[in-house]
Amino acid sequence: MLILITWYLAGMYRAPALMALSIAQLMLFIGLFVLSRYLAGGVKLRIPDAPIRVRKRAEDGQGLYVENTGRLPAAFLLRLRYCYPESTEKKDREHCGELGWRETAERGERITPQLNRGLPWCGVAELSIKELRMYDYLFLFCAKKRVSAKLKAVVLPARHSLSLSWEGRTGGWEEDTEGSLHPGDSTQPRWLKKYVPGEPYRAIHWKLSARTDQLWVKEYGQESEERWEQIFLFLGEGEPWSMQSREAFYHILSALLTGILEDGRSAMAVWDDAEGRVHRMEAHGEEDVETVLLELYQTLQGIPKNGENDLNGKDRNPEGRSERNEKEERMRGEGFGLNRNLELFYNGRLLHRFDVQEYEEELEQLSLLI
């Protein structure tokens, strides 16, 4: 429109300057149009074959990126659609949506879309690339690249650790030649006991003492036997299961597993699927925590587990329900319990009920005495 107006004024007033300006504008527009097509040839979208793992609020590499292999900087827009598959719930705006990133890539630069900030929920999301557009430097013209690709993203909870302390264990403090107490070989606290006058102040657990109005002392030492904690997950009881509640459930479970591992213990998570099969997953390290979450994702989202569809890379064949009433055993049982109401138990005793909106702040501030 601007070119036509300038051309019209140049012809009406017979102004050579306006005529030259309109020709320059026309050449600029043609040049920008050609530039957008040229830049499109150097921008490549790299899509991994395996599902990508994304941890919330982390800057980990994901495997999906846009690379500029051309000689000039390139501005692009990448749009994709995500959807969380569900076996029982109707897909709606809570489960599906669209994401877009507009970035400028320098020569040879790789840019990774921030899926960790865009995907709203933990779980397995199915992604489909909608389009990739390249723009000229004034964003007047764009060139679309046809991209037809689908992939899966496994969204993991943000890293949290639930502070756990065990009371009433023995051992740990050693006496030196001067009669003062000091930690043994281990530099990590293993359990707690009530403060006894004469013990060093540096060993006092000040955070927990302030919460309970009782002085607690951190015990140290080595243990020869591996210590285990069981976590029973009650997936079929409680309030209606919403995406927000499930999100909180995943974060609390991840923080609980991490807290148990940081205390030097191993954990076993136990739950039933919709067919009544019992899943038992062990966790000895951070990688095992991710494996437990992936198995739970597949259970709750009804994702088939055969061959390439198994996100853990292997078919684990969960156990069938035994003859004894395992549910009653778990309710009596020894270990932790977490239900859909976000209530955390230990040996049948309620430790804490998390708020579905404030659970992350609670995970950061809470210190539980077991």
Question: Can you offer a commentary on this structure?
Answer:
- The protein is α+β, with helices and mostly antiparallel strands and 370 residues long.
- It has helices spanning 2-13, 16-42, 115-118, 206-212, 243-262, 286-301, 326-332, 359-365, and strands at residues 43-46, 52-55, 65-68, 74-83, 96-105, 110-111, 123-135, 142-145, 150-156, 163-165, 173-175, 181-183, 189-194, 216-220, 228-234, 266-272, 278-283, 336-339, 343-346, 349-353, 367-369.
- The strands form six sheets. Strands 2, 4, 5, 7, 8 and 9 form a six-stranded mixed beta sheet that branches. It has a six-stranded mixed beta sheet with strand order 17-16-15-18-19-20, covered by helices on one side. It has a three-stranded antiparallel beta sheet with strand order 1-3-6.
- Strand 7 (123-135) and strand 8 form a beta hairpin.
- The longest helix is centred in the first third of the chain and has 27 residues, at 16-42.
- It is elongated.
- The relative contact order is 0.11.
- Residues 169-188, 305-310, 313-317, 320-325 and 327-332 have low confidence and may be disordered.
Indicate the overall shape. Answer: elongated
Which structural class fits the helix and strand makeup? Answer: alpha+beta
Overall pLDDT: 79
N→C terminal distance: 74 Å
Give the fraction of residues assigned to helices: 25-40%
Strand content: 25-35%
Let me know the largest β-sheet. 6 strands, mixed
The run of helices and strands is HHEEEEEEHEEEEEEEHEEHEEHHEEEHE
Task: Determine the number of helices (DSSP H or I, runs of at least 4 residues).
Answer: 8
List low-pLDDT spans: 169-188, 305-310, 313-317, 320-325, 327-332
Radius of gyration: 29 Å
Number of separate strands:
21
